[in-house]
Specification:
Blueprint (H helix, E strand, L loop, with lengths): L1 H19 L10 H19 L5 H21 L3 H8 L3 E5 L2 E2 L1 H6 L4 H10 L8 E6 L5 E5 L22 E5 L2 E2 L1 H6 L4 H10 L8 E6 L5 E5 L3 H9 L5
Antiparallel strand pairs: 1-2, 1-3, 3-4, 5-6, 5-7, 7-8
Helix pairs in contact: 1-2, 1-3, 2-3
Length: about 240
């Protein structure tokens, strides 16, 4: 029972620490991001089963790791420390030519480079203007102008504004803030649902309002369909 209690407390504490560190921890992860994730993860697992370590001490240790990571993240706002701690991007391809010294520096072979380019949709190196290994380990590719996909601007075509569709209902729950944001109310929504022969939001899986005013609605599946899915009926 003590192990279960420690597991619950350490889990909640770890999630809270990650949440307090912000979305930057999972956005374009840097080396120190990986370090704190691995350290907190492995330390949490060890602290759950090691009952010799007082629980309070364990929680403080995890908090210290989180605070240290936050201080390092803030310090990388300085341009000098940013490159020392977080690393810097390296060109692997320049003007269609491989920059071999940077491949050696980052311990990347030709096969890995070609695989990275293929994943990005480029099968020939000479189609690439620049291929950069970013500080987070991702490969970004800028093709030569003649190999770029054609855009409406290239064809001098006018395009209408698209924007993002606004979710009004998600899994039966009305998003009141989004209704207010688009200048609508529940009465309008109920009217639209009745037009589609839906009794209420409970019957809606997803409702999206597009920027052109069109309303997309996906109905909730019947309860018997959900039961059949979880019971494995009708498979194969």
């Amino acid at each position: 029972m003590e192990v279960v209690t420690r597991a619950v407390i350490v889990y909640i504490w770890s999630v809270l620490l990650f949440r307090l560190q912000g979305k930057g921890l999972t956005f374009q992860q840097k080396p120190y991001d990986f370090a704190v994730i691995i350290l907190i993860g492995s330390a949490s697992a060890a602290l759950i089963v090691n009952r010799d370590v007082p629980l309070l001490n364990a929680l403080v240790a995890l908090a210290v790791l989180a605070v240290l990571h936050t201080l390092i993240s803030i310090s990388t706002l300085n341009n000098f420390l940013k490159f020392i701690i977080g690393g810097q991007p390296d060109l692997l391809v320049r003007n269609g030519r491989i920059v071999k010294q940077n491949l050696i520096k980052n311990q990347i072979n030709i096969s890995q480079l070609l695989a990275g380019l293929r994943i990005q949709g480029y099968r020939r190196i000479h189609d690439v203007e620049y291929a950069t290994l970013e500080a987070n380990g991702q490969l970004s590719v800028i093709p030569k102008s003649q190999f770029r996909p054609v855009t409406p601007t290239d064809l001098k075509l006018d395009t209408s504004y698209e924007g993002l569709a606004t979710p009004l209902v998600i899994e039966g729950q009305i998003i009141k803030e989004n209704l207010q944001f688009v200048g609508l109310n529940k009465s309008w929504l109920k009217t639209e649902l009745r037009r589609r022969e839906l009794e209420g939001a409970d019957h809606v899986l997803l409702a999206l309002l597009d920027t052109d005013g069109s309303l997309y609605i996906a109905e909730q599946p019947p309860i018997n369909v959900i039961k059949a899915f979880f019971l494995g009926e009708g498979k194969g």
